[in-house]
Amino acid sequence: MSEALPFALLARDGSARRGRLTTAHGVVETPAFMPVGTAATVKAMRPEEVAATGAQILLGNTYHLMLRPSAERIAELGGLHRFMNWPRAILTDSGGFQVMSLAKLRHIEERGVTFRSHLDGTLYSLTPERAVEIQHLLGADVTMVLDECTEFPVTPDAAFASMERSMRWAERGKRAFKPRGGHGLFGIVQGSVFPVQRLRSVEALTAIGFDGYAIGGLAVGEGQETMFMVIDSTVPALPVEAPHYLMGVGKPADLVGAVQRGIDLFDCVLPTRSGRTAQAFTRRGTINLRNARHIGDPRPLDPDCACPACTNYSRAYLHHLARAGEILASMLLTQHNLTYYAELMAGMRQAIERGALDDFAASFTDQQARGDLPPL
């Protein structure tokens, strides 16, 4: 167990784990989902509202914050927690994915990545050392090493070269990291969809030694079956005493399946992005509030949910807000989706403690298959 970032396993159910991660800004009960606050905000939400959903840790983004307003500016203002008024834990991703997907004219070499900002074309350099430095300035509780985000689909040779470079960068990131109580550094397993490469990556990372281990490079179009295959072949090789983080995942069914396979932490833009496009996740599946079937429906969105959208407003009103393009629709549906995700994770934690996660998963699948409430 890491002394700097303690992680305690409280219960096991098959491969599933119920744990507790202790950070400088509070305890995170796992398995846990991290809402994404890319630019120091969870879109359409106040920090107090995010906390009310049950979230204990947020994800911030190195790439976006280094461009605007800059890590140095945030450090001058007291760090990211104070800057965004979030007193709980924060994990910051290294920015590698955004460099690959958003930046203009990027160039990858052994030293790092040179790219032009998607905002104004300014030239930047991001090295493994600079990525760690930025996250230190932000004050992240959990820092991620810089990795090369392998494209998909990819040939085995190209995936191997990419993974090997990420492992060399991980070692440099570890040397640059400044250990301190309540803060930790996670390595990122790469290797695309090739199990042998994934195991080689795990071997390299564990030899370096990290406070936690993430599985990156998934949820990029490979499909759920392949994703689960990669998790099945990777997780058993990860250190048992460290937290396991699946990056960028995902849909509710992905979370349930991944928890069954030994994953402790998740992040994804899906619940917040869907909330801004009138999509709501419920116990009976995904609902599109723009559909005309809701126009005169006085019932709550989800009768078993205690969030403000479900306890104070009808489907008809939410439909009206969505069709009218009102900001309140994004606010209410984002809060609902984050509440649903937090309650799903809490339900899995309780099920693991009872040794009943398989029953929980079966009930989840059955409820989702039933579909939404019939129209009035």
Q: What's the CATH architecture name of the largest domain?
A: Alpha-Beta Barrel
Distance between the termini: 54 Å
Q: Quaternary state, please?
A: single chain
Strand order of the largest sheet: 4-14-13-12-11-10-6-5
Q: Which stretches are poorly predicted, pLDDT < 50 over at least 5 residues?
A: none
- Helicity level: 40-55%
The tally of strands reads 16
Quick summary:
This protein is of the alpha/beta class and 376 residues long. It folds into two domains: 7-267, Queuine tRNA-ribosyltransferase-like (TIM Barrel, Alpha-Beta Barrel), CATH 3.20.20.105; 275-370, no CATH class. It contains 15 helices and 16 strands.
Structure description:
The chain is α/β, with parallel strands linked by helices and 376 residues long. It has 15 helices and 16 strands. The chain has helices at 47-52, 62-67, 71-76, 80-83, 96-102, 128-138, 156-176, 195-208, 224-234, 252-260, 270-275, 308-312, 315-324, 327-354, 357-370, and strands at residues 7-13, 16-23, 26-30, 32-34, 57-61, 89-93, 104-109, 112-116, 123-126, 142-144, 184-189, 212-215, 244-246, 265-267, 279-282, 285-288. An eight-stranded parallel β-sheet has the order 4-14-13-12-11-10-6-5. The longest helix is centred in the C-terminal third of the chain and has 28 residues, at 327-354. The termini are far apart.
